[in-house]
Every structure is written in C-alpha cells, then in structure tokens.
Amino acid sequence: MSSPAIVFDRVSKKFRRGERHDSLRDLIPSIVKRGFRPRMADMLEQQEFWALEDVSFDVAPGEALGIIGPNGAGKSTVLKLLTRILKPTRGSCLVRGRVGALIEVAAGFHGDLTGRENIYLQGAILGMKRAEIARKIDAIIDFAGVEDFIETPVKRYSSGMNARLGFAIAAHLDPEVLLIDEVLSVGDRAFQARCVERMAAFLKNGVSVVFISHNLQAVQELCTRCVLLNRGRVLKIDAPDACVSAYLNHSDDRRDGRDGANPHESVRIVGASLTDPFGQSVTAVAPGAPLHLVVQYEARRAAANLSCGFAAFRQADNLCVFDSYTHVLGLRPFAVSAGERFAIRFGFRANLLRGVYDILGHVYDAQAARHLDQLRRLGVLTVAEEFSHAGIAHLSLECAVVSRETSSAAAALISA
Fold this sequence. Notes:
By secondary structure, the protein is of the alpha/beta class. Helix content is about 25%, strand content about 35%. The chain is globular, with a radius of gyration of 27 Å.
C-alpha cells in the first residue's frame, strides 16, 4: 500500500487578534515583555485564539478530500499550512510530491503585465520551467477562455477572468498534489464543467486533491472523503454525503434558521418531515420521485387569511427552483384560533436534476401580503441520477427514431 501523499498530524495553529502599537512608548515595553516571558505552545495569551486545534487527516494518492464548514471554521488555514505559507503551532503537516495550489488564484499576478506575461510569471512561481510553460501556453489560454484578451494587462480583467487564468495555469502544472480553495465559485457553467473534468482526470492519474468549497454539491460529486470543521475542530470525517448532512443539521451553523420574521408573530412553523408516499423518511431520491412534505404549525394568537407554502433552492448556486403557496394551489386562505396546532401535507414530484436542494417553509398573511414566518432548511433533499443532464428540470424525456430513409430516397424527395 502506497504512503499517503498528505499527512496532517494533530495540527494546531493559533493567532493573535489585531495588536496595534501607535508609538515607541507602547511598542518597546511590549517587545521586552514578550522577550523575557517564557512562551508555551499549549497556552493562550491575551488576544490569542486557536484557528485550528488538534486536527488530523491524511490523503492517499488518487483521493479527493473535501473540507467543509462555516466561515471561520479554519478551512483556509489548513491550506495555508499545507502550502507552508504558515507554520503549525503544534503538530506536523507533510506533503509529498509536486504541489499545485489554488488558494488565491490571482495572488501571483502583476496587474501591469499582460495575461501572457503573467502565465510565465505565475508558472515560475508554481515551479514550472520556461520551456514547459512555452509548450503548454496555448492549452492554458484555451482552457481559460481569455484568448481575446491575452495581450491585455490583467488589471483590466474581471475577477472571473483572473480566476479562470489562475486555475488554467495550475491545471497544466502536472502536480502530484492539488490544493484548491473555492475555484468552482467563479466562471460560467462551461468553465466549471472543464474544471470538474480536469479534476476528475487528476484523480484518475493518481493526483491527491484537497478541495475546500461552500459548493456542497461539488464536494459530494468530486470527493471521496470529507472533513467537517467548525471553530477549528474536526466534527466529522466521513463520506461526503454524511458530512454534508451533519453540516446542514449542526446547530451552530443552522441556528434558528428564521429569515426576518418577528418572533412574536401569531403563527410559527414548529416542525416538518419529508417522506415518500408510504411515510418513510427520505434524504436522497431519483428524479421524478413522489414525495410528501408535512409541515406543522402553531398559532400563538388567533389569525385569519393564512396561506402556507414552501420553496426549494439549489445549494450549488442558491437558485430558486420552486416557490408556491396554498392559496395559489386552490386552498382558500383560512383562520386559526389561539393555541391551535395544525399540519399541512404537500404532495409533489422531484422533477429535478442531480443536486442538493434546501427547502424553505413560509406562513403568509394573504390579506396583509406579508410573511408571518419563514424557516430555512425545513428539509434537505438530494436528487441523484444515473446519467447527468444539463439544466434544472427533469422532463422524463423519451426518444425514438420514427423514420429513416436511404440517401437515394432522400435525393428523390429533394429533386421532386
């Protein structure tokens, strides 16, 4: 069995919150104080905090490890430690082989140099020889899709163009280890598809990949294992689906999940379940699968003209794929009394393509035209399909050849 390409062994990293000295009177005593005071790696001094604490994982050749978690969880700190931009306070991190890193994709670009000149500059920073860059430059330009602007200074580029060029350079580095931070958040669909295709080719060729992203769908599709971080600690190391589910349901990240609703409003959402028609709880379904969403509500005070509904958003880009209310579906606005609990069942089919979808529930006052309550992540639905199609909706498409003619018959028809 081959040795891991990446070993992150009980790593901790601490930082000091912004310490500023506006004069020599403040600076010199601070330096003297630190110089004569013994420092211990395990101790936190005033204004210090752990960005990472006792984090361990390894990555084998040909494996893609996803790292997910809320902002401030320590994800980018992991990559900066792996690229030796930072040194660990405790523990050790080892990376074997040639490394391609995409942390800040345009960090090595010089604004006054053209795209072509920056390819040579960035390639040199990443360890490529000039002859190697010259051999690959046409492929890099084509991959980035910036051929019309390659002689333009990159300070004139959009952030997306800079990111595409940065990824294109790293993608042609032929690395043994690839470290990526949020590269799929830039570029159009076609470019993102090229990125995914190139990453899949890297894995097939035995490249080890560490992939940080808030695009949970991409993590599930590309990665073989996943690390869930929160506040610098590992919450879970498991299959991507398991880590994504734990992330979405973790209380620190989810909180109450309410969007702009007054907590003292008359009617609140208090629970929900997503099941198949037989009442069995579901998390992943095939396109077109029949589903039941049952939402429970509680009236704190009497209310009238109520309408309830839900919306579905694709996690990859927060695109709303469906949104509706009971009064639109044919159920007239209704009234409830104080203390009453009630439930509404929504039956629908998951006519969606592959992806992970968040379900948002809402309670609406149809007369006043305002929301009484909105609850994010009422449910999370994963749609899995055997074949990948483009778009959003699953149209249950069928196809068949209905006529065929020989070339001679076609020619006769044309001449006629």
